């Protein structure tokens, strides 16, 4: 955290020296596992936009999001989300759609609703960076993605 505090001090010092009104938006994306009260205080002080990566209920999320020792991170991520909520920090979710999640649109919708999560963005799992493969590399996947969205949106 000390790195980020120092960075904010440097940025604010530059803004002051410029003697101009400059608007800067700060954002961070996290899995929420290491969130603490100190981080929440920091986010509030510097008006950070906070994004949390969670893919829905534990049985979906924990398939792909694991600790280095192989344990699922869902419970720890939910602790971080509850901490943000208890501090009245506005946050958003990024959820990755994988082959596993395509069969559970109602459960995903209900999970976010039950947990008071109102801002969700969905990413389609892709091959990028360290992700060398995608569970969505199948011939029939487009129809399944379309069916997921139709069920999720109730159309």
**What general outline do the C-alpha atoms trace?**
elongated
- Strand line-up of the largest beta sheet: 1-2-3-4
Structural class: alpha/beta
Q: Mind telling me the C-alpha Rg?
A: 18 Å
Largest sheet: 4 strands, parallel
Distance between the termini: 45 Å
Mean pLDDT rating:
91
Number of helices: 6
Give the domain tally.
1
How big a fraction of the residues is strand?
5-15%
Helix-strand pattern: HEHEHHEHEH
SS elements, strand count: 4
The stretches of 5 or more residues where confidence is low (pLDDT under 50) are none
State the helical fraction. Answer: 40-55%
Describe this structure in words.
With 155 residues, the protein is of the alpha/beta class. The protein has one domain (28-126, 135-153). 45% of the residues lie in helices and 15% in strands. It contains six helices and four strands. It has helices spanning 2-18, 37-45, 58-64, 74-86, 105-114, 141-153; strands spanning 26-30, 48-53, 91-97, 120-124. Strands 1-2-3-4 form a four-stranded parallel beta sheet, covered by helices on one side. Helix 5 (105-114) packs across helix 6 (141-153). The longest helix is centred in the first third of the chain and has 17 residues, at 2-18. The protein starts with a helix and ends with a helix. It comes from Crocosphaera watsonii WH 0402.
């Amino acid at each position: 955290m000390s790195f980020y505090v120092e960075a904010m001090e440097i940025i604010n010092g530059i803004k002051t020296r410029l003697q101009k009104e400059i608007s800067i938006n700060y954002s961070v994306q996290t899995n929420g596992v290491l969130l603490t009260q100190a981080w929440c205080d920091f986010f509030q002080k510097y008006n950070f936009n906070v994004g949390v990566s969670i893919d829905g209920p534990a049985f979906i999320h924990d398939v792909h999001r694991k600790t280095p020792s192989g344990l699922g991170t869902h419970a720890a991520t939910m602790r971080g989300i509850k901490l943000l909520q208890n501090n009245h920090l506005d946050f958003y979710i990024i959820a990755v759609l994988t082959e596993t999640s395509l069969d559970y649109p109602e459960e995903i919708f209900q999970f976010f609703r039950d947990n008071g999560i109102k801002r969700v963005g969905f990413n389609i799992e892709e091959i990028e960076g360290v992700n060398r493969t995608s569970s969505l590399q199948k011939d029939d996947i487009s129809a399944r993605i379309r069916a997921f969205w139709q069920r999720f949106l109730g159309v």
